[in-house]
Amino acid sequence: MLGSAAVACAAGSGEEEVATPNFVDQHQRIAKPDLSDRQRIRFLTSTDYPPFNFLDDRGRLTGFNVDLARAICEELGVIAKCQIEAVPFAELVPALKRGDGEAVIAGLAMSATTRREFAFSQPYFRYPARFVTRKAHQIEAPIAEHLADKVVGVADGSAHAAMLQAFFPGAKVQTYPDREQALAAVRDGKIDAYFGDGVSLSFWLESDAANHCCSFAGGPFLSDRFLGEGLSVAVPPNDTALADAVDYAVAQLVGKGRMSELMLRYFPISAF
User: Fold this and answer.
1) CA–CA separation, 183 vs 133, rounded Å?
2) Exposed end of the chain (fewer CB within 10 Å): N or C?
3) What phi, psi does 113 have (nearest 5°)?
4) Bridge partner residues of 46 (DSSP)
5) Which residue spans within the chain are E strands per DSSP?
6) Does this model's pTM top 0.90?
C-alpha cells in the first residue's frame, strides 16, 4: 500500500517551517504505565547507523535513536533507571536474548523471524521514498499525474526501482548501477528526476556533490510492501508492558512537539 506521511510543522523563532512526520495516532487512549518496580531499563543500540546511532567526533554515543531513548525515559519518569549501551549490530539480538538489556533501539527489522523472537513497539519512524529534481526544472504537482514522458533514474534492483514501476507506471525508468551515478545524472540534467530513499537524499541535497542543484518534488511516499514497516523498539516477547510504555511515551513526545525537535536536530532537510 502506498501512502503519504501525515506531517506536522515545527519551527524555531524566525526559521522556515519544516515538515516532520507524525506516525502516532493521537486519538489513542494509552494509560501512563507504572514502571516504578523496574530496577533497570537498558536500551541497546549500535554505533554504525548515522544519523540514528553513531559516535561523534569526540567518541560519544549520539544520534536520533539515542536521544529518543533518553526522551522516552524522561517522559516515563525513569531517567534515573535508564541506560543506553552500544554493542556491535550483530550482537544486539543475542544480547537482548541473554537479558543484557531490556530493549533494542537500533533499526532491528520487523520480520516473520524477529516477530517470533521479540515484541515490538509501534513504529516511531518510517522511511519515505522521495523524488529529487533540479530546482530549475521541477515537475508539477501532483507529481504522479505529471510523470508521463519524464525520465526517472533509480538504482537497479533496488526496492525503490520496484516501487517506482508499480506505482508510477507513467514514468520512463532509467536504471543505474548505483545511486551516485543516478544522482549525478539528475544534477547534470541528463534525466528529469531520481527516486529513492528520502533520508539519504536529505543529506545528499546538502552535500558538495549536489552543488545546490536540486530539491525534493512530491511525496513523501510510504509503502510497507516495498519499504518495510519502519523503526520500532524491540523488547523480550514476555515484556509487552515495556513496548506499551514506549508507545505511550512516543505519543506524548509527538503531541508535545519533541519528536519534531529531534527530527530537526539530525536531518538537515526534512525527509518528509
Assistant:
1) 9
2) N
3) -70, -50
4) none
5) 2-3, 7-10, 18-21, 41-45, 48-49, 53-55, 61-62, 82-86, 103-104, 119-120, 129-134, 151-155, 172-176, 193-197, 214-223, 234-235
6) no
What 3-state class would DSSP assign to 217?
A: strand
Residues 48, 64: Cα–Cα separation, whole Å = 13
Helical packing angle, 258-266 and 64-76, nearest 10°: 160
CA angle 24–105–203, rounded 5-degree value: 80
Kindly state the cell numbers that stand for 155.
Answer: 538504482
Q: Which amino acid is at 229?
A: E
CB-neighbour burial class of residue 156 (10 A; exposed 0-12, middle 13-18, buried 19+): middle
| Mean pLDDT per 10-residue segment, the chain (272 residues) | 40 44 65 89 95 94 97 96 96 96 92 92 93 95 92 96 95 95 97 96 95 94 92 95 94 90 87 86
CB 41 within 8 A of CB 73: yes
Distances (CA, A) of 237 to 62, 116, 118, 243: 27, 8, 4, 10
